[in-house]
Each structure stands twice: as structure tokens, then as C-alpha cells.
Amino acid sequence: MNTEPREDFYSVPIRRTRWSSIWIALAAFFASSLLAAAFCGLLIWSSIKVGGAVIIIVFGLLCGAMFFFSRPWQRRYARSFDSRRPGIRFAGGVLAVPVTDDLMLQFNLAEPHEWRYGWFEAVVATNAAPTTHTRAVLTYATLAQAGQQLLLKAEESVREAQMAGWPKSAEVPQTTPVVRLWATDLVALVEALRSLTELRSKEA
Asked: DSSP labels for 48-88?
């Protein structure tokens, strides 16, 4: 996405479902397993004497490493699926957000409006095993104008919001409707639109 504040057009994909990311992750794990198994097979048939425990350790290390390093590729591929459908568009000073297939919210950012944004993080113990903790993260931005409200959120990362200097929140906003984005797109969009609004205010 172009984030140059002097540009008057942006387009951001919406995350419709997590299933594409799940299937891509499963495919990446399967491919990593095959490659690790092929390498271990070469070790077994080679002249190098290795034990069964070594083969298992090598397989686990290779499979985990290849899956981990393929994460950026997995994210790009999943995002490309979302990019094939209409997303959020900003043109002519108007932000158009498709909430559903039948509902489109529009915000005229040349008129008074309010942005609120931040990130949320919570680490809680699971009910089944108190010693096991889960980490919940959320990057969000709310937009309000003339009684119309919108919550944009991303649940996979808060690193982008932290790098942009967004504040940490004590709770998750309850604004509706809710539209899910990728964290990188969410932060870039809000920062670009805020910069554009501030620039126009100074020029006015």
C-alpha cells in the first residue's frame, strides 16, 4: 500500500477469514516435513553412520526451522488471497469501508472526525493448565464521525503499532461494526490518513 501522505488514493485488503492462513500454514508444514524427511533419508542411505535418535532430532529441527522461516511467505500468500476481493478504499477525501457484502460505510475525512488507536496485550492462564499461558494481542483504530462509528482491528501482531508509537490500552474497544485488517495495513492506513488530514489542516 502506498503510504505517502500527499497521495489521495489508498486501497487496503480486508481479512475475510482465517481459513486461508490456516490452510497455507498446513501446506507449509507438510512441505517442511517432506523436505526434512528427504534430507533424513539421504542421511540414512549415505555412508555416514547415524543413529535413530539423531535422525529424529535432525528431522524435528529441520522441519521446525523451515516452517518458521517460511512464515513471512505464508503471510504474504494469505494476504494476496484477501487482495483479490474489494477492500477499504480512500479516494477524493472519502474513506469507503465494506462492512459486509451489502453494507458500505463512508467517512468524509474533509469533515470533522475522530481517530482513536492503540494496541492491547494480555497474558492469561488457561483453565485446563494454570501453568500454561496464552497471549492475546490486538492492534486497533476507531473512527467516529456524525454518529457513525467503526472499529478496525488486527489480531496477529502489535509490533507495527509499537513501532509507530501507538499507546497501549487497558481494554479492548467495544465499538461496532468491526472490520479485520492485517496489522501492517491497519497502521499504515491510519498513519497515512492522519498525516494527510494534518497536512490539509495546515494548508487550509
From this structure: S---HHHHHHHHHHHHHHHHHHTHHHHHHHHHHHHTTS--E
Cα–Cα distance between 79 and 74 in angstroms, integer?
9
For 71-81, write each residue's pLDDT tens digit.
777 677 777 77
CB 192 within 8 A of CB 173: no
Better-predicted residue by pLDDT, 72 or 95: 95
- Four-CA torsion 37, 42, 44, 46, nearest 10 degrees: -170
Lowest mean pLDDT among 21-25, 58-62, 118-122: 21-25
Q: How far apart are CA 188 and CA 196, in angstroms?
A: 12
CA angle 14, 5, 143 (to 5 degrees): 50
